[in-house]
Fold:
Amino acid sequence: MGSQEQTTLATRNQLFYGTFIYPKTLTDLEYLHNTAVAVDQNGTIVAIERDYDLSQAASTLFPRLGWAPDSVSIHSSLASHNQFFFPGFIDTHLHAPQYPNVGIFGKSTLLDWLETYTFPLEASLSDPAKARTVYNRVIRKTLSHGTTCAAYYATKDVTTTNLLADLCLRAGQRALVGRVCMDQLSPKYYRDASAADSVDATRESITYIQSIDPTGAIVRPVITPRFAPSCSAPLMAELGKLAAETGLPVQTHISENEGEIALVKEMFPAKKIGAKGDTYTHVYDTFGLLTDKTILAHGVHLSEEEVQIIKARGSKVSHCPCSNSALTSGAARVRWLLERGIEVGLGTDMSGGYSPSVLEMARQAALVSRHVAMGCAPAEKENKEQKESEGEKESKAKTEGKTSKDGNAEKETKVNKANKDGIDRERAKLTVEEVLYLATKGGAELVGMKGKVGGFEVGMEWDAQLIGLGRDVADGEFEGDEKEEEGNVDVFGWESWPNKVAKWLYSGDDRNTRKVWVKGRLAHERK
Ligand code: GUN
Ligand code: FE
Structure:
């Protein structure tokens, strides 16, 4: 066993006891109380005992597992502090080097934001000392918010991209780490010299990352063309071949912003690249970049035709609600994607997004879905415009005397139609259970860890958080700031468990994230 692997191995068998909550399906959370979850030294869940009396463990469970009682650490969730175990969060899209810029975006939109804020900072992180400071901080920060796995973009610099992988491995945070490919459009000071250089540098980084974690248990490389505008056709073609050759995952951005989409249309006309259509999706598809391991960030403005291609290729979408609001990119239609069978996860997209918290992304996903329900999604606007022009035609017809004879019937049809639209849009709203699914189990599908993390079942690995909502509020019991230190959520004691979870989603933060484990190993503890 290599020394790196040892650092990621839990040293003892562990028994977790108490309340466990996890997504069973997109729509339902499982609530298990008085339950014991046994996790072996590899961090794998080997037994789950429901309605279990902990005092029986030494005489029944441990002998069955072949565990000596003194080889086991026991961790209980405290009912008195409204604690429960929840799967670790998966951040399916973020840029580690952009972390110092969180909150700094002014009124910019994607393309000017990249030029003004992002490229200069990313370029400066080829300095290993600066990169170490920033990368250590972003890893610690995301872990403290319960992120047990993250799909990171690094920069174009190989040395510091490899450093990011080293630091993730050391901190015990699961990560996909991608060296960013970009051979055009960006400023000269931050651009690969050629497509060939870009591919060579990518191969170098892949080889390194695979050498430090040969089984890919904690860190894995990911092929990362930044987005179509910053990659030449030859570069994308080579990266598509590399994905086919290595079977590695791919991550990139798609259809985030209207200006970007127009640029892609202009830069990659179907005729020029031999595409079967002239959409953004056709560009990636033409170069073999849409695989069943591809994570596409944003997808705000995708068309029906594009989604069908993405579905056929098995590619996935990372929904980045905070970034899409901050950079005024638009409101992505998550329900619409899910109904078309697309797997969706959540991404902080720092620093397009300003928050390191996937819990916050789940909350914002819920809110953005309500904006979609209120008619703010791009397709909704198109529908409205279409309806308006239909309305114009109708009134023109009326003045020309071609109107329906029964005015009342006509009115009624319009009302029915409006109601139907309202009901259809209502469907866009995502529930507490659904956004928490996207944050965990849904994310696991994106990062290639379906069935491995994102829930609590025998055979899955223990990537988990201990959440504590604090003691119930009781009159006069708390002095000074004592209650504030327990976090922002106030539980009064009469709430059902689903309501406690809803309060956590909408008003919780990292103060509620008491402990975080990755593959059975404690990776963060709130003091
Ligand atoms: N498109 C290309 N690069 C980026 C980036 O760094 N962030 C976001 N949000 N979109 C991009
Ligand atoms: Fe991004």
